[in-house]
UniProtKB/TrEMBL annotation:
This is Peroxisomal fatty acid beta-oxidation multifunctional protein MFP2-like isoform X1. It comes from Camelina sativa (False flax). The keyword Isomerase applies. It catalyses: a 4-saturated-(3S)-3-hydroxyacyl-CoA = a (3E)-enoyl-CoA + H2O; a (3E)-enoyl-CoA = a 4-saturated (2E)-enoyl-CoA; a (3S)-3-hydroxyacyl-CoA = a (2E)-enoyl-CoA + H2O; a (3Z)-enoyl-CoA = a 4-saturated (2E)-enoyl-CoA. InterPro entries: 3-OHacyl-CoA_DH_CS (IPR006180), 3-OHacyl-CoA_DH_NAD-bd (IPR006176), 3HC_DH_C (IPR006108), 6-PGluconate_DH-like_C_sf (IPR008927), ClpP/crotonase-like_dom_sf (IPR029045), Enoyl-CoA_hyd/isom_CS (IPR018376), Enoyl-CoA_hydra/iso (IPR001753), NAD(P)-bd_dom_sf (IPR036291). PROSITE patterns: 3HCDH, ENOYL_COA_HYDRATASE. SUPFAM superfamilies: 6-phosphogluconate dehydrogenase C-terminal domain-like (SSF48179), ClpP/crotonase (SSF52096), NAD(P)-binding Rossmann-fold domains (SSF51735). The gene is LOC104728084. The lineage of its organism: Eukaryota, Viridiplantae, Streptophyta, Embryophyta, Tracheophyta.
Length: 725
């Protein structure tokens, strides 16, 4: 393959008169422009050759295709590639050349047929797949729409309601379901895939099998009035679930056009809308997130050294509380045998009970069978001592946040665990060097910082000290992948990356209410911005005990930039500790529904008198935009510090950490990407102005000042020399 081209297709014509065209673009046979243009040439040749009666399209190495090459969108967005004429691929090539050809095509699908991959197969006249095939149109989660005819062909093959479900949720279906839906014509073992597809193609030529153009099918479409009702409902749901995104509604426009005005007009609408969505900011953000998420496992100096992950056969967890039980659940769900150690029988039973409850909730929801529940639970063994730790490959400590207790545990671990065993701590704040102070095992000590609930939250912060070996990081990255977490490797400091970014966010919110802003308006503005909930609702959910413990760490470690609000401690004195006590910033009913509490004023006023601040008329009347700026620019500021200190190696890692650890809206691309979309100059000037009026909490850090003064992007790499990793 030419090193400048991205992928190709190859065509082989058999003695049976079937031309087999194979998509080749590892690792997922994505449809790059090179692949698509090669496919066009192969088709033109196959259609012109007298020895070709029919065509089979397949993908190399057990994967049909993962869809259009997503980096192509980036090239179009950056202007480094000219977008082809609107409709050139979907209409001129896929519809007019392939689907309308005089020779039939059959798709032979093994593995993935996603996005453009499935769309290409739907333009074929039949689809044969293997049992493991995954079929889906996940484009909306990338901010684009199915643009190779999927908005027109999928409803015609599987019906409007199912097509909407598949497109709006981005969830693929398996081969068997695809078969029962009418998306797949036959499911056969891998070894028979190509022979069946060839025979099927010839059967179409011989009229023994129907010659079906998906685009012209109408039997699965509901009557027009019903279709309009279904689409109206889908629009309503979409507006509710994705209020800040335009592309899902634009996708529905393309679907509706095809149903109302016919598939050809629908294809034209799809092409027009497909081209428009590429330049939406939300699309740029989502595509950035796609690649950034896959980039977190690429750690310079670690994953580029040819190290292979060692096999982790058995894991021990110390502490079966909230976190330990969640971590144990995540591990046994991925088939790791786990030993859970506790201090006494009662606590051990409670810990195992929590794991059981986590799994039982899956059984109740129907996502886990009873047999699978029993099998998974059988991987968990309890223990009250370290005897069974002699053959474990990794220990994750998750006891209460107490330095001397953790130090003692790590000293004990060194005595009982084998020498190769990874010694990980789930501490949220404590310096890992201190935790390992009483051991000689600094090279195998690492942070495995899970987020609560650990079996649900997708992020794993892997915290490395200056001593942690590259092998240990590689091993933990592999475990992270196996338990389906997105790992982000960060340096050792108070709060690591996520909690450091989280802290200024809640602090800014406390500052604003002390100066007269309405907490409920702040929560509402932040939710509208796209966070799962506002900072006050979040404090209630987490509980004031955790909020105060975290604040104490930050006040101790970063006193110069901490705003010391007394609102939470004052409420806690009155036995209001958040949702668990049904009273916090909100009042909660039996169904955990939150409503504003008029009494909150009293605590705010008292806190204001303690801090000595005054109500600021400007802050009383903040617009939603100003609320977002005053709560999130301090987060950007802290993210800049984390980046400048080398705690995160890439700005994109902070984007992923913010999205998966804080709930920052993915369609804004993450904290640094969002900041760059606003501009460092503006953010710097706002923070600088606020710091002069309101104090050092808002003071821009040196990194932000330097980049902001030049208007330079915040996400541009920091020189290696300054990186701590
Ligand atoms: C004018 C244009 C119109 C286009 C219209 C068309 O309708 C639009 C599309 O088709 S958009 C693409 C739709 N497809 C997807 O959204 C699939 C995205 N990929 C995935 O979901 C997954 O990667 C996977 C399920 C295909 C494989 O998952 P797995 O965990 O096995 O592996 P990774 O996710 O780590 O991916 C491995 C490497 O492959 C790269 N990659 C995957 N898909 C694509 C793609 N479609 N385009 C380009 N690259 C892709 C991925 O980035 C990984 O590469 P690294 O170098 O980062 O390791
Ligand atoms: N709670 C969170 O949201 C959260 C999030 C991330 C990280 N963390 C960190 O995880 C750790 C655990 O937090 P948690 O919320 O699960 O605490 P928890 O109080 O719910 O559980 C701690 C458990 O450790 C047990 N334990 C204490 N000493 C032990 C010993 N010597 N051997 C075995 N078990 C022992 C206790 O009996 C208790 O069951 C802390 O370091 C915390 O900072 C907590």
């Amino acid at each position: 393959m030419d090193s400048r081209t991205k992928g190709k297709t190859v065509m082989e014509v058999g003695g049976d008169g079937v031309a087999v065209i194979t998509l080749i673009n590892p690792p997922v046979n994505s449809l790059s422009f090179d692949v698509l243009y090669n496919l066009k040439s192969n088709y033109e040749e196959a259609l012109s050759r007298n020895d070709v009666k029919a065509i089979v399209i397949t993908g190399a190495k057990g994967k049909f295709s993962g869809g259009f090459d997503i980096s192509g969108f980036g090239e179009i967005q950056k202007g480094t590639r000219k977008e082809p004429k609107v409709g050139y691929i979907s209409i001129d090539i896929i519809t007019d050349l392939l689907e309308a050809a005089r020779k039939p095509s059959v798709a032979a699908i093994d593995g993935l047929a996603l996005g453009g991959g499935l769309e290409l197969s739907m333009a074929c006249h039949a689809r044969i797949s293997t049992p493991g095939a995954q079929l889906g149109l996940p484009e909306l989660q990338l901010g684009v729409i199915p643009g190779f005819g999927g908005t027109q062909r999928l409803p015609r093959l599987v019906g409007l309601t199912k097509a909407l479900e598949m497109i709006l949720t981005s969830k693929p279906v398996r081969a068997e379901e695809g078969h029962s839906l009418g998306l797949i014509d036959a499911v056969v073992p891998s070894a028979e895939l190509l022979t069946t597809a060839r025979r099927w193609a010839l059967d179409i030529v011989e009229r023994r099998k129907p010659w079906i153009s998906s685009l012209l099918k109408t039997d699965k479409l509901p009557p027009l009035g019903e279709a309009r009702e279904i689409l109206k409902f889908a629009r309503g749901q979409t507006r509710k679930q994705a209020p800040n995104m335009k592309h899902p509604l634009m996708c529905l426009d393309a679907l509706e056009t095809g149903i109302v005005s016919g598939p050809r007009v629908g294809l034209e609408k799809e092409a027009e809308v497909g081209s428009q969505v590429i330049s939406l900011d939300t699309t740029k953000g989502l595509i950035h997130v796609f690649f950034s998420q896959r980039g977190t496992v690429k750690v310079p100096g670690v994953t580029d050294r040819g190290l292979m992950p060692r096999k982790i056969k058995k894991v021990a967890i110390i502490g079966g509380g909230l976190m330990g039980s969640g971590i144990a659940t995540a591990l046994i769900l991925s088939s790791y045998p786990v030993i859970l150690k506790e201090v006494n029988e009662k606590f051990l039973e409670a810990g195992i009970g929590r794991v059981k409850a986590n799994l039982q909730s899956r059984v109740r929801k129907g996502s886990m069978s009873k047999e699978k529940f029993e099998k998974t639970m059988s991987l968990l063994k309890g223990s009250l001592d370290y005897e069974s730790f002699r053959d474990v490959d990794m220990v994750i400590e998750a006891v209460i946040e107490n330095i001397s207790l953790k130090q003692q545990i790590f000293a004990d671990l060194e005595k009982y665990c084998p020498q190769h065993c990874i010694l990980a701590s789930n501490t949220s704040t404590i310096d890992l060097n201190k935790i390992g102070e009483r051991t000689k095992s600094q090279d195998r000590i690492v942070g495995a910082h899970f987020f609560s609930p650990a079996h649900v939250m997708p992020l794993l912060e892997i915290v490395r000290t200056n001593h942690t070996s590259a092998q240990v990081i590689v091993d933990l990255l592999d475990v992270g992948k196996k338990i389906k977490k997105t790992p982000v490797v960060v340096g050792n400091c108070t709060g690591f990356a996520v909690n450091r970014m989280f802290f200024p966010y809640t602090q800014a919110a406390m500052f604003l209410v002390e100066r007269g802003a309405d907490p409920y308006l702040i929560d509402s503005a932040v939710s509208k911005f796209g966070m799962p909930m506002g900072p006050f609702r979040l404090c209630d959910l987490v509980g004031f005990g955790v909020a105060i413990a975290t604040a104490t760490q930050f006040i101790e470690n970063f006193p110069e930039r901490t705003y010391k609000s007394m609102i939470i401690p004052l409420m806690q004195e009155d036995k209001r500790a958040g949702e668990a006590t049904r009273k916090g910033f909100y009042l909660y009913d039996d169904k955990r529904k939150a409503k504003p509490d008029p009494e909150l004023k009293k605590y705010i006023e008292k806190a204001r008198s303690i801090s000595g601040g005054n109500v600021d008329p400007k802050l009383v009347k903040l617009s939603e935009k100003e609320i977002i700026e005053m709560t999130f620019f301090p987060v950007v500021n802290e993210a800049c510090r984390v980046f400048a200190e080398g705690i995160a190696v890439k700005a994109a890692d902070l984007d992923i950490a913010a999205i998966m650890g804080m709930g920052f809206p993915p369609y804004r691309g993450g904290i640094m990407f969002w900041a760059d979309s606003i501009g460092s100059k503006y953010i710097y000037s706002r923070l600088d102005e606020w710091s002069k009026t309101y104090g050092d909490f808002f003071k821009p850090c040196a990194f932000l000042a330097e980049r902001g003064s030049k208007g330079a992007p915040l996400s541009a790499p920091v020189e290696q020399a300054r990186s701590r990793l």
